[in-house]
Design a protein that fits this description.
Number of strands: 16
Helix content: 10-25%
Oligomer: single chain
Low-confidence stretches: 1-17
Distance between the termini: 43 Å
Number of helices: 4
Radius of gyration: 20 Å
């Protein structure tokens, strides 16, 4: 039996065989078309600068740490990310990466952590925040999805929503996406553990349209809630004041050595991820 049900959904097919195969093919074709639409929507996002309201929580040793305030998000393809959190013009946290390394500066405690990037896992970084900074664009729904992986993957229709779990050529699934027909962006993204369980979940809402002059328009979720499944970390963002041309982006935002000279941490912790 193949169950593709839910309130307002497509019901349950109980008679197996050709009926199940036909419904499965139809759902897969719909998923491929939906992902192609998603990829077209995010194709223009090669860089972004925006302001944001931020709330962040993480567990450090036996302490629960919290920061809230205003921040800036900078993204530049293919792998550069910077995210700040502060109050009254003073940064408290600065997280980021350059595609090869990731880092987190705790400016209140005078400590910086740095280590090799690991985009395959996306979590378990060794950073106190616990989320791979380089995965932030994917958790915001700004990254393209490989259509070939969708064809190899698993698709479920629940109500009007499609749950899409792409799989690579080795059969590995690293993420799951949920699409709602009412919006262009994913409404939920899960980064997965090797056993298929969710390691981190991002929930996106409040669609807004960002114009890239001469190139097109991208619809993105402006309210984003990212949380580790074990409850040890969460990041709540409200994006606004978009500058898609990225004119305020500076190379120094993605350069660890220059950030060290600027922030002057008292201690630098090297993360060993072997």
């Amino acid at each position: 039996m193949l169950a593709l049900g839910g309130c307002g959904g497509r019901g349950v097919v109980e008679d197996g065989g050709d009926a199940v195969a036909e419904l499965t093919r139809a759902t897969l074709a719909e998923a491929v078309a939906r992902v192609e639409r998603h990829n077209a929507n995010v194709a223009v996002i090669d860089r972004m600068w925006c302001r944001m309201g931020v709330r962040v929580m993480w567990v450090e040793g036996d302490k629960q740490r919290r920061e809230s305030g205003e921040g800036v998000l900078m993204v530049r393809r293919p792998g550069e990310v910077a995210l700040s959190v502060g109050k009254l013009g003073q940064d408290g946290l600065w997280a980021g990466g350059d595609g090869e390394r990731v880092w987190l500066f705790d400016l209140r405690e005078g400590v910086a952590w740095v280590g090799a990037a690991d985009p395959v896992s996306g979590v378990g970084t060794g950073l106190p925040l616990g989320i791979e900074p380089g995965e932030v664009p994917r958790l915001l729904g700004w990254s393209a999805i490989d259509v070939a992986d969708v064809r190899r993957g698993r698709v479920t229709a629940i109500g009007d929503r499609l749950w899409i779990e792409p799989r690579d050529a080795q059969g590995r699934a690293t993420a799951r996406y949920v699409f709602d027909p009412a919006v262009e962006h994913p409404v939920r993204i899960d980064l997965l553990e090797p056993d298929g369980g969710s390691a981190v979940t991002s929930r996106l809402s409040d669609a807004e349209r960002v114009t890239y002059v001469g190139r097109g328009v991208a619809e993105i979720g402006a309210d984003v809630a990212i949380a580790l499944s074990d409850g040890s970390s969460e990041l709540i963002l409200r994006l606004r004041d978009y500058e898609p041309a990225g004119e305020r982006i500076r190379d120094a935002a993605f350069d660890f050595e220059r950030l060290v000279r600027a922030h002057r941490p008292e201690e630098i912790v090297e993360i060993d991820r072997r």
